Amino acid sequence: MRHRLSPTLPPEMLKRYLSLVSDVARQGMTDVRRSVNELRPDALEQRDLLSAIHKMISQMSATSKVEITLDNSAGRLALGEDEEEVIYRIIQESITNSIRHGKADKVRIWMTREYNIVTITIKDNGVGAPNIEPGFGLTHMKERLDMLGGKIHVDGSDGFCLMAEIPIRWGKEND
To answer: What proportions of the chain, in percent to the nearest 5, are helix, strand and coil?
Structure first.
């Protein structure tokens, strides 16, 4: 049965229609965001992981006027595409969250490796979040890490700090 929205439509029916439309729109946006995030970043198609991260940091720093630094003691690693994508997306999403939600003007990133674990730590000087409620970004990071057997830890008590541990397959170091 098809209804036209008109002044004669009962208010409760109108509320149900609007709620349904809102739910469909919200689900559509979630589906679009998920699809976009599943695509391999162009930066990783065109360059190695570290070069792609440096380019992203440079662009984000220039457009936001936020001081972003990377301390990499892990060196150049031979990683699978899935591992590279997870590392790139975690850094990208963390910087975005630091700027957008944390209002940070400094973001520091550490990348270390101990045996077959790469640890990415991102710390900002923003407003923090005493009660962290995972939104799309944190949830998606956790899902990606779960697929690799990784872990994520967050702390919003002093600015915001995210630590991701990513087990990597044994490969050769390139340096």
So the answer is: 45, 20, 30
Residue 94's nearest CA partner among 83, 84, 108 is 108
Summarised one tens digit per residue, pLDDT across range 112-127 is 999 889 999 999 999 8
CATH code of the domain made up of 42-167: 3.30.565.10
Q: pLDDT class for 138, splitting at 50, 70, 90? A: confident
53 burial type by CB count under 10 A (0-12 exposed, 13-18 middle, 19+ buried) = buried
pLDDT tens string 41-52: 565 665 688 888
Note the Cα 155 to chain centre separation in Å.
16
Q: How many CB atoms lie within 10 A of CB 14?
A: 14
